[in-house]
Design brief:
6 strands; alpha/beta; six-stranded mixed sheet; 286 residues
Length: 286
């Protein structure tokens, strides 16, 4: 293989990876029901809802709402998993939901003191990437306490930003930004952002795009970036025009990201194999 051609391929691949990173999708997250320890289940449920709402308000992540989790887990006969508190269980639930991370936690009570403990589990590597505990004497202050936990989590998730729950809410209102609320699409089992992201993960053929990267090299990566996947029409039956528009736009974006990622992996595999062959041939004097 010509050394210049291999160098050009590598430079094109670096450019493709740069383009791919520029269209990186938001991380998907889910918050499981916090488990009560020495207190009632309703109080623990309040913590889960506040944590979820605070993360949604940041508008930096795709957060699966509780009703959507119930629907998906029910289909898999895993309804009880909504309340799991172990990292192993969280990983299994996360794989079913198709999210990047899961938040699990507990609400304990010792005397008159409430103790909130939360952990974030990375679904890909099963590692606990963040954990924190806060004590509070007055349950009426629980909203501010949960926001404090979320702000601490944001330092891990967004280390290069100064985003906080309070600041994000004010900025969003000032710009007139409209967030996707679960109430707005309550008549559907899932909001369009979550539904389309999960559908793209299921429907995009990863094998085809990995193979295109192997066979076509950087051309395969370029093709994956240019081709826009279309959501199956069967998934949009009975949905209103606004839902369809948001769903379709996000599906194309999520699908394109998956295509580009797989094609890049294929191209990298081809380059590594080519480099090994070239090195072997050169050392043999061919």
């Amino acid at each position: 293989m010509n050394k210049k051609i291999l160098l050009i391929q590598i430079l094109f691949l670096m450019f493709a990876v740069f383009i791919y990173s520029d269209v990186e999708m938001k991380k998907t997250m889910a918050i499981l029901d916090f488990q009560p320890k020495g207190t009632d289940k309703n109080s623990a449920s309040i913590i889960s809802d506040l944590f979820r709402d605070s993360l949604v308000s940041v508008q930096k992540f795709i957060v699966v709402d509780r009703s959507s989790m119930e629907t998906i887990l029910k289909e898999q006969n895993l309804q009880q998993a909504l309340g799991c508190s172990s990292a192993e269980c969280a990983v299994n639930v996360g794989k079913v939901l198709g999210v990047n991370s899961i938040i699990i936690g507990t609400l304990g009570k010792l005397g008159n003191t409430y103790i909130i403990s939360a952990r974030m589990v990375n679904i890909e590597n099963s590692k606990i990437e963040w954990s924190n505990s806060i004590k509070v004497m007055d349950f009426s202050q629980i909203d501010d306490v949960v926001k404090g936990l979320v702000n601490d989590l944001l330092k891990t998730l967004l280390p290069d930003e100064t985003t906080t729950v309070k600041a994000t809410i004010e900025t969003s209102k000032g710009r007139g930004t409209e967030k996707i609320s679960s109430n707005r699409y309550s008549k559907y089992s899932m909001d369009p952002i979550t539904a389309s992201t999960l559908a793209a993960k299921v429907n995009v053929n990863k094998t085809i795009w990995f193979t295109s990267g192997c066979l076509l090299g950087v051309l395969g990566v370029g093709l994956a970036y240019l081709v826009e996947p279309t959501p199956p029409s069967s998934l949009l039956i009975g949905k209103d025009a606004d839902y369809v528009a948001i769903y379709t736009k996000n599906y194309k974006r999520a699908g394109k990201r998956i295509q580009t990622k797989q094609a890049t992996y294929g191209c990298l595999s081809w380059l590594i194999i080519s480099a090994i062959i070239y090195g072997t041939s050169a050392s043999a004097g061919y």
